[in-house]
Write a structure and sequence with these properties.
- The complex is a heterodimer.
- Chain A is mainly α.
- Chain A folds into two domains: 72 residues, Arc Repressor Mutant, subunit A (Orthogonal Bundle), CATH 1.10.10; 65 residues.
- Helix content of chain A is 72%, strand content 0%.
- Chain A has eight helices and no strands.
- In chain A, helix 1 packs across helix 2, helix 2 crosses helix 3 and helix 7 crosses helix 8.
- The longest helix of chain A is centred in the middle third of the chain and has 25 residues.
- Chain B is mainly α.
- Helices cover 80% and strands 0% of the residues of chain B.
- Chain B contains four helices and no strands.
- The N and C termini of chain B lie far apart (49 Å).
- Classes of the chains: A mainly alpha, B mainly alpha.
- Chains A and B meet through helix 1, helix 4, helix 5, helix 6 and helix 7 of A and helix 1, helix 2, helix 3 and helix 4 of B.
Chain lengths: 148, 98
């Protein structure tokens, strides 16, 4: 069952990424090779039926409604669940790892700035400026503006 | 590509800052502003991916472009899923209150 739920999550994420909105039951069913009834049972088991029913209501007026305005939903001072903090922190960690990799790469570069300028049809000075400004930007973000 | 706004390191720096501010805003019970910060991370990643071909930082750092694209798309998915889940939770709260 956990594999099916994992697959469900992947399908939801894929549809959201593709269309910028939650998936419809029929879309999930089609992508998972299940019947709509099975999908509904699956969603019910995950206690995730609320947005489906609300989306259904919105689709009653417009078959292709825009993605819900999440910001307006949170306009009345309700604190989001604490697990969201953890998920955002994990995302920050992923970005920090990528940042370290890129900065290391900048100090062990394989090509010259002139070669890269030629590839991109910009001057070596422009390449150099991009590098300096990017490192400056990172330094400011990591250490604070007073250290720039 | 504008060197001041959309090279990979600036994108990462801006994203980390926005996500950190988002956590702070959630703590201050300003979730709408926090969600705005999350949305801006997605928007900036999208904009960067449109222009990734002309980012000199990628070449200077000898980083594989395909790998960076996959990792950024993964982060974009993480953030959009968080936004989506926040919406689901709020819908559940609204449904319970109704």
């Amino acid at each position: 069952m956990s594999l099916i739920r994992q697959k469900l999550k992947e399908v939801e994420e894929a549809v959201f990424q593709e269309y910028g909105r939650p998936p419809r039951v029929a879309e999930i069913a089609s992508r998972m090779g299940l019947t709509e009834k099975q999908v509904i049972e699956l969603l019910r088991g995950r206690k995730a039926m609320s947005y489906v029913s609300i989306d259904k209501e919105r689709r009653g007026q417009d078959p292709h409604p825009p993605a819900p305005d999440i910001a307006s939903l949170y306009g009345h001072g309700v604190k989001p669940p604490s697990d969201m903090h953890m998920r955002i922190a994990v995302t920050i960690e992923k970005l920090a790892q990528m940042q370290q990799q890129v900065i290391k790469g900048l100090f062990y570069q394989g090509k010259t700035q002139a070669e890269i300028g030629k590839e991109l049809n910009i001057s070596q000075r422009q390449v150099s400026r991009v590098k300096v400004e990017a490192l400056h930007e990172v330094k400011g973000k990591v250490l604070g503006d007073h250290n720039r | 590509m504008d060197a001041n706004t959309n090279d990979l390191l600036s994108l990462i720096g801006n994203s980390i800052e926005n996500l950190s501010q988002c956590i702070a805003l959630f703590d201050q019970v300003q979730p709408a502003d926090g969600v705005e910060k999350l949305s801006s991370v997605v928007t900036e990643i999208e904009a960067y991916l449109q222009e990734i071909d002309v980012d000199p930082i990628l070449r200077l750092a000898s980083v594989d472009r395909g790998e960076i694209e996959v990792r950024l798309q993964s982060i974009e998915t993480d953030v959009t899923t968080i936004i989506s889940d926040l919406g689901d939770k709020e819908h559940e709260n609204m449904a319970q209150q109704a």
